[in-house]
């Protein structure tokens, strides 16, 4: 089992990790500038510019226009109808109970008894699932894969699966599309696009983006050849379902034929046919909702996490599932190996990484998930003390999120800091991984942040041809990319001609261009 004490010592304060090359993490001091060619010839990612007005938290206005009308007396039955539409059966019963002079006495008493039962049942249900009493924004903040969803000006990011293009959601509820070589940055805005928690590009398609919002799922159709910087709301589809809000996770099938969405207050996972705007709920008793979804790269399985100490894995042939209970808390995050044969996941309240292996079902077992009966611990990320020149640094603790690069050779784990220790830091731990013929997990290094910054959200580039590229959003509203240059089975012909020499020095740095050519 791999533990943090096997990792190399973290960098001194003020140094950040620029890239990995030949299995070595290359540092860079923040007082000096990276190579001019780093973001172009080396990484070749879109350059972003964000106006300051876009990172300000907008004032929240009431969605109701009730205050704009002069109050007038309505009949009790009309008030009951309005209460039922706005608050459900409990609101209607409360309206009848408060109208003793306008309704028969027996009806008022029956309504009071029914209202008391509804409140008792709601209280009992809330004691089983405390998250149901939380506000919508608090639910998204609690179950989002981003750590500082409420306060960070950059909320989430989604790389396109086939091109150098990504969508970036901002705190003002807008989404910006950045693409390499494009001078146009489309800005997506919609009146229903509130509190964006997750985004996903449709595979095998250049222009369709699914967005998880407070009250619905918005599917944008963005013409990549258009010169318009503000696509109209007519370029979007609205997918909504009663009781399915807020939406905290969306994901497409690897072939793009099906879209999944989940909400922590809805026990059903919705399977959407976007073309017809219809859905099929996949309902299971228990769990209190669905917080996080992850489709395996081979398309055979889906991870479904819940707010309770249980998670499910669905097989996508017959849509049956198997459940795995956890000991301490809910499943916080999970990621699949490239072939879909292994699931790595983390549990809230624990400082370990678990592994579940899956075998392809054959014969009578077809239509089953085929997972192992119990999970094994493959890594210990509990708090570890490192001695540096400037004193001790504590790293380790609970896991916020995990991502596995598409080549299956790098695993990034976002570790929270210990709030009770001043020397504790939140960092990203990077592992070298190998899934076959046997599973291996080896330490690679830490990705520290600048002083005063913490990692908020991360995602690997789906098709980086020179190894792996990790994009990280920071609590300060900054974004940076960390490339990992290595030769893998998918792209074995990329070899370095010359190496970049990076010196972590306050005054100067020597740099030789690093080029990649294809033989």
Strand content: 35-45%
Number of helices: 4
Main sheet overview: 5 strands, mixed
Radius of gyration, whole Å: 25 Å
Q: Which spans have pLDDT < 50 for at least 5 consecutive residues?
A: 491-519
Task: Indicate the overall shape.
Answer: globular
Mean pLDDT metric: 82
Number of strands: 35
Helix content: 10-25%
Question: What is the structural class?
Answer: mainly beta
Distance between the termini: 39 Å
Order of strands, widest sheet? 1-23-22-21-20
Describe it.
The protein is mostly beta strands and about 525 residues long. Among the domains are: about 1-40 and about 380-519, no CATH class; about 75-135, no CATH class. It is about 10% helix and about 35% strand. A 5-stranded mixed β-sheet has the order 1-23-22-21-20, with no helix packed on it. The protein has a 5-stranded mixed β-sheet with strand order 3-2-33-32-31, with no helix packed on it. A hairpin with a 5-residue loop joins strand 26 (about 400-405) and strand 27. The radius of gyration is 25 Å and the shape is globular.
